[in-house]
Amino acid sequence: MTEIAFHFNVHDRMAYACRLLRKAWRSGAQVGVVGHEAWLAELDRALWSFEPVEFVPHAWAGRAAGPVAALTRLWLARTPGELPHHAVLVNFGDEVPAGFERFERLIEVVTTEEGDRLAGRRRWKHYSDRGYAIVRYEVPA
Description:
The protein is an alpha/beta fold. Strand 3, helix 3 and strand 4 form a beta-alpha-beta unit. It starts with a strand and ends with a strand.
């Protein structure tokens, strides 16, 4: 059964995403990131530039091939079905990602914005109603 964790009270979604994904990349994890395409495009740019002396290597699912695809551990995708692995899925979208149950772990990120908090509560209820054990992380201010 998929391990689910919610990260609540995120003040700056983009900065948090970059730090979370850098940590995952450094650990050697295979990670897929899903969300709205415009937000993912912004994340794509941020991962190249959020630290002056480093970047987080990543690629878009379905767009990378050859050696790049073979070496990539961090993937951006509109849907989980586009991802080339089933290890860790990070959801920055508003809805429950279709096919999340194929992944070993799912991380949901919820900001302090009221609309995002309401969408997060709906996703929590969805998982809870289906018997998933959920771990809750409160992100310090």
